[in-house]
Amino acid sequence: KELNELEKELLSREKEIEVREKALTDKEMEISKLQEQLSEKLRSIQEQVQYLEKVDNQKAMQIIMNMNDKATAVQILRNMKKEKAAAILGLMDPLQAAQILEDLAD
Prior knowledge:
By secondary structure, the protein is mostly helical. Helices cover about 90% and strands about 0% of the residues. The chain is built from five helices and no strands.
């Protein structure tokens, strides 16, 4: 009788381990997808930085200020050469520039 109970407990633990392994595999896949998305976002931002660094400062400022996603605008400025980013910030309305600088500091 004790042997039968031990077998049941062993089977129960095996099932629990299988469930946990599957959950772990699912999490690994989720993390992998997120890493790929972040990688793609970074490539996109780096590409946008390259374009905007070739545009004159006034036009670059207008483009950045018209972006819908302010977080992306901040990331673009963060990845630009400091001189270019400073020139663009200098052309902005002081209140907008201050808000972006606060976001850059985070």
